[in-house]
Design brief:
Blueprint (H helix, E strand, L loop, with lengths): L1 H80 L2 H25 L1
Length: about 110
């Protein structure tokens, strides 16, 4: 009988040791789950902000595309009209702007 009682005490101590270890592991797991939840919430918030920004950029590009399309249409009408002097002046103006930009950037260093 004595041996059975001694074996029972050892079994209870081992059981308590396993319970303590499980409690410790459960606490560590809770901390990891909390950190993961926080991270996933932050990722969700960032995704929503990025979607808002992309939608804003999409509408800006759409309006820019419309403006550019209208400008190209006017240029095509002007080209069909055959105003060669206007084209010459435009080419010279663009050449002048590139030249001035080159000079400014070259002497800026």
């Amino acid at each position: 009988m004595r041996r059975a009682a001694a074996g029972e005490g050892y079994g209870q101590a081992t059981h308590q040791m396993y319970e303590d270890e499980n409690e410790h592991l459960v606490d560590g797991l809770k901390d990891k789950v909390t950190a993961l939840k926080s991270l996933s919430i932050d990722i969700g918030n960032e995704v929503r902000e990025q979607n808002k920004m992309l939608n804003s950029m999409d509408s800006d590009f759409d309006s820019s595309g419309g403006l550019l399309g209208a400008t190209m249409g006017r240029l095509q009408r002007m080209a069909r009209a055959g105003h060669s002097k206007i084209w010459l002046y435009m080419f010279l103006f663009v050449l002048f702007v590139f030249f001035v930009t080159y000079i400014v950037l070259k002497f800026q260093r």
